[in-house]
Design goal:
Layout (H helix, E strand, L loop, with lengths): L2 E11 L17 E4 L2 E4 L6 E3 L2 E10 L4 E6 L5 H16 L7 H13 L7 H21 L3 H4 L7 E9 L3 H13 L4 E5 L4 H15 L4 E5 L6 H13 L4 E3 L7 H10 L3 E4 L6 H9 L5 E2 L3 H18 L13 H12 L7 E3 L1 H7 L13 E3 L12 H6 L4
Parallel strand pairs: 7-8, 7-13, 8-9, 9-10, 10-11, 11-12
Antiparallel strand pairs: 1-5, 2-3, 3-4, 5-6, 7-14
Helix pairs in contact: 1-3, 2-3, 3-10, 5-6, 6-7, 7-8, 9-10, 10-11
Length: about 400
C-alpha cells in the first residue's frame, strides 16, 4: 500500500447568528473587529475568528483507503493548506503509510534547520499524521487507540468551556451546562485577577462543591497576579489555573507552580517534546495540555510519555479544533496512561459536526470509547467542499 494523493481543505463554517458563541459574543472585553476576525482591544492576546475555521487533510492510498486528519487552524486555514500541499505533499506521496513515525520525522526535519520547529508548519505535520493513523486503523479494522498503546479506559470524561465578564451571567451559563450533564467546567476569563476571582466565586456558589472547576486566564496575568489569583482559587477548590502568564516566561511559570498548592496547567502552545523539555525539567506546570490538532497523534503520545516520566498528568487541549481534532483527541486519550480529562466545547460542537455523516458528541460529559476503525467518525466530503474557503 502506498500513498497516492494528499489534499488540504481550508474550511470556514459560519454560525447561524454570524457570531459563534464559542469564539465571539457580546459578553467579553472590548475588541477590534476587522472582517472575519477580531482581536482584543486592551490586551495583546490571540486573534479569533467569528466562525469555526480549520484545515482538513485527506490522504488517499493506491488501494482506495481514505484517511482524514486536521491541522488545527482557528485562523488563516489557507496558510496551513499551502504548507500541506506545497511542502508536505512531495515528502509523503509514494510512501507506505505504515511508516508513520519515519514520515513524521522526515516532515519535521525538512524545515527544522530553517527555523520552523513549531507553528503552522508543525500543525500541518500533525494533520498529516492524524490522517495516516486513520488509514492504518481502517486498513487493519481497528480503532486508533488499539494501535497506539491499547485501551486504558472505556470512556473519556470531558469538561465544558464557558466564558463571559458578568458574574451572574457566567454562573447561569455554568448551571445550564451542569443541567446538561457536565460534571466539570472551565471558565475562560479574560479579565484582571480580582474580576476573575469574583466570577469564579459566583460560579462556585451556583454549581456547588461537587462540580470540578478550572479557570483559563489566557496569559493575562503577571507572576504576582497569578499567584494572588491562584490562592483565591484554592479557597474555592478549583482544580487548576491555566495559562497564567506568557509562554516565554518559563521561570515565571515555575515560580507560580511552586507558590500554589493547586495545579497549574500549561502547554497548548507547544507542539513537540523538544519545546517542552525545559518546562518539564523546571517543573513549570503540574498538568500538561498539548493539543492533538497541533501535535498529531505520534508526537502527542511522545509528549505524554515524557510527561509520565515526570509524573505529570495530561489534559489535552482542543479549543478551536474541529470535529476531527475532537475524535483524534478521544483516540489519544483512550490510549494515554496518564490522561486526566479532555477539553470540550458544547456550544460549538453542532457547528463542528456540519461535516460529519452522523453526530459525534458526548453524553452527560462522556465520550464512549468504541471499536470503530480509525478515528471512529465518517466525514462527508461533499459537506467539506461546501465550506471550503475560496
Amino acid at each position: 500500500m502506498k500513498i497516492k494523493n494528499l489534499t488540504a481543505f481550508p474550511i470556514r463554517v459560519k454560525s447561524n447568528d454570524n457570531l459563534s458563541r464559542d469564539y465571539v459574543n457580546e459578553d467579553r472585553p472590548p475588541f477590534i473587529d476587522y472582517g472575519e476576525y477580531i482581536i482584543d482591544a486592551e490586551a495583546f492576546t490571540s486573534i479569533y475568528s467569528k466562525h469555526h475555521e480549520t484545515t482538513l487533510v485527506k490522504i488517499e492510498t493506491d488501494d482506495g483507503i481514505i484517511g482524514w486528519g486536521e491541522a488545527q487552524s482557528p485562523v488563516s486555514p489557507n496558510t496551513t493548506k499551502r504548507i500541506v500541499e506545497d511542502l508536505l505533499r512531495p515528502l509523503v506521496i509514494g510512501r507506505d503509510p505504515f511508516d508513520i513515525g519515519a514520515i513524521w520525522t522526515r516532515n519535521y526535519g525538512a524545515m527544522r534547520e530553517r527555523g520552523h520547529p513549531t507553528g503552522f508548519y508543525v500543525d500541518a505535520i500533525g494533520g498529516v499524521d492524524i490522517a495516516l493513523w486513520d488509514i492504518l486503523g481502517k486498513a487493519l479494522g481497528k480503532p486508533i487507540h488499539q494501535l497506539t498503546g491499547g485501551k486504558y479506559r472505556d470512556q473519556i470524561e470531558v469538561y465544558a468551556g464557558i466564558g463571559g465578564i458578568n458574574p451572574s451571567d457566567v454562573a447561569e451559563l455554568a448551571d445550564y451546562h451542569v443541567k446538561l450533564g457536565y460534571r466539570a467546567l472551565k471558565l475562560h476569563l479574560l479579565l484582571d485577577w480580582k474580576s476573575v476571582a469574583n466570577i469564579s466565586e459566583s460560579v462556585r456558589k451556583k454549581v456547588g462543591p461537587e462540580i470540578k472547576l478550572m479557570v483559563d486566564v489566557h496569559m493575562r496575568q503577571s507572576v504576582t497576579e497569578a499567584i494572588s489569583l491562584g490562592r483565591r482559587l484554592e479557597e474555592l477548590d478549583f482544580l487548576w489555573l491555566e495559562s497564567p502568564t506568557v509562554p516565554e516566561d518559563i521561570k515565571g511559570q515555575s515560580e507560580i507552580a511552586r507558590s500554589l498548592d493547586m495545579a497549574v496547567a500549561i502547554g497548548e502552545w507547544n507542539r513537540t517534546r523538544y519545546e517542552m523539555r525545559e518546562s518539564f525539567e523546571k517543573r513549570s506546570y503540574d498538568i500538561v495540555m498539548h493539543d492533538i490538532g497541533r501535535t498529531g497523534i505520534t508526537e502527542g503520545h511522545k509528549i505524554a510519555t515524557l510527561a509520565d516520566t515526570y509524573n505529570i498528568p495530561v489534559s489535552p487541549h482542543v479549543g478551536g479544533g474541529g470535529i476531527i481534532s475532537v475524535a483524534a483527541t478521544v483516540q489519544f486519550s483512550a490510549s494515554c496512561p496518564n490522561f486526566l480529562i479532555m477539553e470540550h466545547s458544547h456550544l460549538g460542537n453542532e457547528i463542528k459536526n456540519k461535516i460529519t455523516c452522523s453526530n459525534y458528541a458526548p453524553n452527560n460529559g462522556i465520550f464512549p470509547v468504541t471499536d470503530d476503525p480509525g478515528l471512529g467518525i465518517d466525514i462527508d466530503e461533499d459537506s467539506v467542499r461546501r465550506y471550503v474557503i475560496s
